[in-house]
Amino acid sequence: MAGSARMKKSNDAFHGNVNKRGIVKPTTRQDDKYPVGPAVLALFIFVVCGSAIFQIFQTVRSNGV
Question: What residue ranges are annotated as transmembrane (predicted)?
Fold first, then answer.
C-alpha cells in the first residue's frame, strides 16, 4: 500500500512535465559569436603561421641566399 501512495505522489509531482516535452528553452548565452573556442582558434593560427614561417625558411635555404 505504501508503494502506491508514493507512486501517486510522484505522478502528481511530475504530471506538469508531460506538456513541456519537446519544448526547448532558448540558450541564455547569446554573446558567443565564434563557432569554435579560443583555444582551437589559437592552435589553428599557430599551425598556419608556423607552417608559413617554415616554408619561408626552406625557400631561403634552397635558393642559397
Answer: 39-57
CA contacts within 13 A on the Cβ side of 48: 6
**What pLDDT, on the 0 to 100 scale, is given for residue 58?**
92
The answer as to whether 27 is a domain residue is no
What range does the domain containing 59 cover? 35-65
Average pLDDT over residues 12-39: 71
CB neighbours of 36 closer than 8 A, spacing ≥ 6?
A: 44
pTM for the full model?
0.41
How many separate domains does the chain show?
A: 1
